[in-house]
Amino acid sequence: MDMKKTALSAGAVILGGALGAVSRLLLLEITGEAVRSLGARHIVLPLFPIDIVNITGCLAAGLIMGLALKNAQLKSLLVTGFLGAFTSFSASVQSYAMVYVDGGSRLVSILFVSNALLCLMSCSIGLAIGNIIRERRGKRQKAADRGGRAAGGSAAGNTKEENS
Length: 164
What we know:
Elements: H1 3-37, H2 49-67, H3 72-86, H4 89-101, H5 105-150
């Protein structure tokens, strides 16, 4: 085990976690204020604010997976740290439990299933977008490498580490 890399990854997780938690708090405050301005005491809207956070986080996770980042510290910062703290399954379940206790078992079933499907779709969309970006970046890099060789330059030493 390389202690330096482990320490860098741990630091990245801590930084990402702090940023993700604060981002979630801010987004929940913004969306919560919007819900309260509608006069809703018990939120019975198509999505809870935490669902919006989770769906957004799933889209970002899919995008990051699609980009196939190779830098371990960057993945630790973004995925484990930021998105781990930004999204929250337990907060979603807590919102659903409040509606369930108030007698909304059918509504909770619909919300729970629709949230899971929306999160899956968001992650899939992000993955597809990330794959497209990565493939286009790879094609541009290959074209640049061919152009350098055609102009008499050597491709050796001109390559960049992808996604660092």
